[in-house]
Design a protein that fits this description.
Largest sheet: 4 strands, antiparallel
Strand content: 15-25%
Distance between the termini: 28 Å
Strand order of the largest sheet: 5-6-4-14
CATH class of the largest domain: Mainly Alpha
Radius of gyration: 29 Å
Structural class: alpha+beta
Number of domains: 3
């Protein structure tokens, strides 16, 4: 039994140490590169800089469905700028907030967002052949003959029929592709197109083709928008805040771990290992849900680190009380976790309630703070109740240290 516990503890501690190293420094294994977790997290405007826009809806009494649809279409258009970590959210009942980190061209962003997306294919006699409603999808590809980027269109059933008849009629003649009264391209029809698949040429690069495909795919907005707030945020704050935040986090976490190790001894060592698991788990969740990290979000995360240690302190104090009345080490650990559970749940649930209220009633950076705080609290409860318990019982089961003075302050 002691050998089994020894293997469990050694393997667990080694894995935690390995993953902690990879999380901080990264590692290349074979042909795959594991990035440090810090580089995989998306940064918000206050850290990375970019464009902040609030679009106001001019129509009155807009339904929630219309508002959500508008937000989805704006997200498609913003993605057309080639930005992967943009944030598009509702800001009240008649505004939509758009945060685009990493770009500083406000006019380009407004032009992309504000286009109506009216697409028409017009014949040489100025007759409208198909419209944007007949387009099923729009993607970016490469012309195999010219190696130039193109927009590939897929038409729906009605569009396929109309386009087949038009291309058969206008062989040898141009069909103009018009977006918002602007001629995008006027390709000549070389043959009948029966399958409902066509391309738009003329894009000078892949970025321009992506923007055009995004506009076509998003279609016309169901409401009229007007930019109410437009700001360009420089990256200078982030350039100063990121190194400072990293330094503060490293110092704070290191001091907490040293205190736990000195004051609680063996349980403190176990708590330090569990804290590493907590930090890695929280950051992986941030990456998994594509959470954009802001300065308030960093504050919420660091606050939850302290709360993760609080849970361990409650457990270790209960264990100390059990040891002081003469119970055995294993019995004291089981009783300590059992007695501390209600206190841990009470304190964390009240924090979660406050966090959820902030998230659902707040906006902007307040939501970011609330989300990181709630994720941190949930992860701290998991690591304190399961990881700390598993590691501590495994260590005690090894029989390496049996003197109870090493398990209490």
């Amino acid at each position: 039994m002691k050998k089994k516990n020894s293997i469990k503890f050694i393997v667990s501690a080694a894995l935690i140490a390995l993953f902690a190293y990879i999380s901080v420094f990264g590692m290349q294994i074979g042909g795959y590169m594991f990035k440090p977790l810090g580089k995989a997290i998306k940064l918000g405007l206050d850290l990375k800089g970019g464009v902040y826009i609030e679009e106001e809806i001019k129509e009155k009494d807009v339904s929630k469905e219309t508002l959500d649809r508008t937000k989805e279409l704006l997200q498609l258009r913003v993605n057309g700028l080639g930005v992967n970590d943009a944030v598009v959210t509702n800001a009240g009942e008649n505004r939509i907030r758009i945060e685009i980190p990493g770009i500083n061209d406000v006019n380009k962003a407004l032009e992309q967002i504000g286009k109506t997306g009216k697409l028409t294919f017009v014949g040489p006699n100025d007759d409208v052949i198909i419209t944007g409603q007949d387009v099923k999808d729009a993607t970016v590809g490469v012309d195999p003959n010219t190696q130039q980027p193109v927009v590939q269109l897929k038409l729906n059933e009605d569009g396929t029929v109309k386009f087949r008849e038009a291309t058969k009629k206008y062989i040898g003649k141009p069909i103009s592709i018009i977006m918002d009264d602007e001629v995008v391209s006027s390709p000549r029809v070389n043959s009948e197109i029966p399958n409902g698949e066509a391309i738009i040429t003329g894009s000078k690069d892949v970025a321009e083709a992506k923007r055009l495909a995004g506009i076509i795919k998003s279609g016309a907005l169901p409401v009229t928008l007007s930019p109410a707030t437009v700001k360009t945020i420089g990256p200078s704050l982030g350039a100063e805040a990121i190194p400072t935040s990293k330094k503060a986090a490293a110092i704070g976490i290191a001091l907490v771990m040293i205190f736990m190790l000195i004051y609680y001894r063996i349980p403190g060592l176990i708590a330090d290992l569990a804290l590493l698991v907590y930090i890695m788990l929280s950051l992986l969740i941030f990456i998994g849900i594509k959470q954009t990290l802001t300065l308030p979000g960093i504050a919420g995360f660091l606050l939850s680190v302290g709360m993760a240690v609080d849970a361990n302190v409650l457990i270790f104090e209960r264990i100390k009380e059990e040891l002081n009345v003469g119970k055995s080490l294993k019995t004291s650990i089981d009783a300590g976790f059992h007695r501390a559970l209600s206190s841990i749940l009470d304190s964390n649930i009240t924090t979660l309630i406050a966090g959820f209220v902030l998230y659902f009633l707040g906006s902007g950076t307040v939501k970011g703070f609330a989300l990181t705080l709630n994720i941190g609290v949930l992860c701290s409860m998991f690591t304190a109740i399961t990881v700390t318990r598993f590691l501590l019982k495994s260590f005690v089961g090894t029989g390496w240290v049996t003197n109870t003075k090493f398990y209490r302050p």
